[in-house]
Specification:
With 215 residues, the protein is α+β, with helices and mostly antiparallel strands. It contains ten helices and four strands; from the N terminus they run ααααββααββαααα. Strands 1-2-3-4 form a four-stranded antiparallel β-sheet. The radius of gyration is 34 Å and the shape is flat. The termini are far apart. The model has no long low-confidence stretch (mean pLDDT 80). It comes from Goodea atripinnis.
């Protein structure tokens, strides 16, 4: 009897759910989208090993560049993370749909009193100031943003005038003009072009001779 009543309750709840979804399709679609998005965020959340792999990859990318052309912000951020990793002061915390990597004061194996006393441990209210990166949808967002233009050293251009420090992308007309000039540069020269060049050279020689005679 208990099993029959339990199955009856579940059957009635499922029936009401289907009827409610049929009567309110917009609300149901919103709920399904939110639940699907939360499920996707939870399953694509990166782990601690992915952060270490991304950090080593970014460090190798900077190591292939000369110190003169590295971006100072990118290099400083990555070097700080590598230093904390070598000191075993990086901590990983999962917050459900996302995860964070933050900085700790001591190595977990440190036997100092300050590191072992719970009253002197880091309070949770200081966590936002210690966060170093945020993992969401398979990406580490702060690390990726710091690595933007990592091969451009902006300190090389700080002595230039202001109008030369910033560059704007070319417009469609300028791009089309450059492409046309590039295509024309590969075309073979015709005889008419050669004759015109010979005529221009002869005129220039005549002008130079006349100027010498006048002198």
């Amino acid at each position: 009897v208990w099993c029959r009543s339990l199955l009856s309750d579940y059957k009635e709840a499922c029936r009401e759910m289907v009827v409610s979804a049929w009567e309110r399709p917009v609300k149901t679609s919103v709920y399904v989208t939110l639940l699907g998005g939360a499920w996707a965020c939870f399953h694509t959340k990166p782990d601690q090993s992915s952060f270490e792999a991304a950090l080593l990859e970014r460090s190798n990318q900077l190591g292939l560049l000369s110190p003169w052309i590295r971006n100072g912000f990118s290099d400083g951020h990555v070097q700080n993370l590598v230093k904390l990793r070598n000191e075993d002061r990086l901590r990983y915390a999962s917050l459900g749909l996302l995860c964070v990597v933050y900085q700790a004061n001591y190595d977990p194996d440190t036997m100092l009193y300050e590191a072992r006393c719970s009253n002197l441990s880091m309070p949770w209210r200081e966590l936002p100031q210690r966060v170093l990166d945020i993992g969401f949808i398979g990406c580490w967002w702060i690390l990726d943003s710091k690595m933007k233009d990592y091969d451009v050293n902006k300190d090389e251009y700080k002595h230039l005038p202001a109008y030369m420090q910033a560059t704007s992308p070319p417009g469609p007309q300028e791009v089309e003009r450059n492409e046309r000039l590039h295509r024309d540069s590969w075309l073979p020269l015709t005889m008419e072009d050669k004759e015109e060049e010979t005529t221009v050279v002869d005129r220039m020689e005549n002008v130079s001779e006349e100027s010498k005679i006048k002198l």
